[in-house]
Write a structure and sequence with these properties.
about 425 residues, alpha/beta, Lyase, Ornithine Decarboxylase, Chain A, domain 1, nine-stranded mixed sheet, eight-stranded parallel barrel, about 30% helix, globular, binds pyridoxal-5'-phosphate
């Protein structure tokens, strides 16, 4: 089994966090996202403990809530004393409505409107991660209007070498996010931020990649960010209180992908930062990290009901399900890999090679191609693993398909965290 919270019971059914997935599908209906609350909490604790042990004083993880933004996840993050980052008024509002303390929230985004900035400051957001010079002026003006001094971080593009890290484009000099260090624009932005009356510059932010299995890219971006930090300290007498290295640690989606040791990665990043700060002769600033995927992805599975199979001799086999790109667009968007099981036939040979196809009128609506599962019949339950991140948060109502329910397996068993959307819900905005 891909994860240690998966098992097979005496009926040959897949169990998740100790519960029979076929029974969960029966009780709550499909398509259904099931989340293991305990596993989410343990991952938060792993980050918190490793960062406290190996990174400079004040270092802490912030959950990147675009991975899964529902009220219950913000309640869990508050209980686990995690910070959160939000990237839109919608995420900010969800966090606020869940009672999440806004002083521990960071507001991101490369294209914030005046309205977004006003809303964030009205909600007393702890930090705004400022993307560019236009935004800096807008934040300063709005903070002045509301009579506050707003703490900000500046989003920098640390100039990660695309030759060493080919698949990475978020941290490169030509990224749409942030201002580049190597063009001198980052330094200019620092100088303007320091001159603003209603802004307190708290530090710098970058986010350079996703689905990373080791520490290498984090160390490279830390080098560039801390070298910049030291240069600014020397030239302007301004020492950053925090440097945010962003998110990006990966999870294995299939047995071919490596398991990730988060604690070990953080230990190595910490060792690198300590040496670097020694060389640069600066007091190490607090390090923030923003894991999204690695907090929730491998704590979620999606259950579907099979509506039928289609065997095209000499070509391929399809398995049709009652969901698809509307609840999980990641294969359609990025050809993301997934592990699929026939949840009710775990003891049968997984020898039926097939493409799992969604219900939308769109030939690209696939969940996975060329997977092998026990041959299903109509009514069987399919389980797609590792769907806790960027599934529900990317769900749509294309073809007017209602979004699935989200069930959490908590300490006292399963409970509904988000109810299933109804047909009536689909019409709430139609006049
Ligand atoms: C998406 C994003 C993250 C989270 O990335 P993961 O790969 O899910 O860990 C963190 N910070 C920022 C700014 C992001 O855009």
């Amino acid at each position: 089994m891909l994860y240690d919270n998966l098992s097979v019971n005496t009926q040959g059914h897949l169990t998740f966090a100790g519960f029979d997935t076929v029974s969960l599908a029966e009780t709550y209906g499909t398509a259904l996202l099931v989340m293991d609350e305990n596993r989410i909490r343990n991952r938060c604790r792993e980050y918190k403990e490793a960062m406290a042990a190996y990174l400079p004083a004040g270092s802490r993880p912030l959950y990147a809530s675009k991975a899964l933004s529902i009220k219950q996840i913000y309640r869990i993050m508050q209980q686990e004393q995690m910070g959160v980052d939000v990237v839109s008024p919608g995420e900010l509002y969800t966090a606020a409505q869940a009672g999440f303390p806004m002083e521990n929230a960071y507001f991101h985004g490369s294209s914030k409107t005046d309205g977004d900035i006003r809303f964030a400051i009205e909600n007393r957001i702890g930090y705004i991660v400022c993307d560019n010079a236009w935004e800096l002026d807008a934040i300063d003006a709005e903070a002045a209007r509301q009579g506050v001094c707003q703490k900000i971080l500046l989003r920098l593009a640390p100039g990660i070498d695309p030759h060493t890290h080919q698949k990475i484009n978020t941290g490169r000099v030509d990224s749409k996010f942030g201002v580049a260090i190597e063009t001198g624009q980052a330094e200019q932005l620092v100088a303007s931020a320091l001159a603003k009356k209603n802004i307190e510059l708290y530090g710098y932010h970058c986010h350079v990649g996703s689905q990373l299995f080791d520490e290498a890219l984090f160390c490279d971006s830390a080098t560039n960010m801390l070298t910049f930090t030291a240069r600014i300290a020397e030239k302007y007498g301004y020492m950053a209180k925090a440097v945010n290295l962003g998110g990006g640690m990966g999870v294995p989606y299939t047995a071919d992908e490596p398991k990730v040791d988060y604690t070990e990665n953080i230990r190595k990043i910490g060792r690198h930062i300590t040496q670097l700060c020694d060389q640069l002769a600066i007091t190490p600033p607090a390090i923030l990290m923003e894991p999204g995927r690695s907090i929730v992805a491998d704590s979620g599975i999606t259950l579907y009901t099979v509506t039928g199979t289609k065997e095209i001799p000499g070509f391929k086999n399809y398995v049709n399900i009652d969901g698809g790109m509307t609840d999980n667009p990641r294969y359609t968007l990025y050809q993301s890999v997934y592990t699929v099981h026939n949840a009710g036939r775990m003891n049968a040979a997984a020898d039926f090679a097939c493409t799992v196809a969604g219900r939308c009128c769109e030939s690209g609506d696939l969940i996975q191609e060329n997977v092998k599962i026990a041959k299903p019949v109509r009514g069987d339950i399919l389980a797609v693993l590792t769907t806790g991140a960027y599934n529900y948060s990317m769900a749509s109502n294309y073809n007017r398909v209602p979004r699935p329910a989200v069930v959490m397996i908590g300490r006292d068993g399963p409970y509904l965290a988000v109810r299933r959307e109804t047909l009536e819900d689909l019409l709430t905005c139609d006049l």
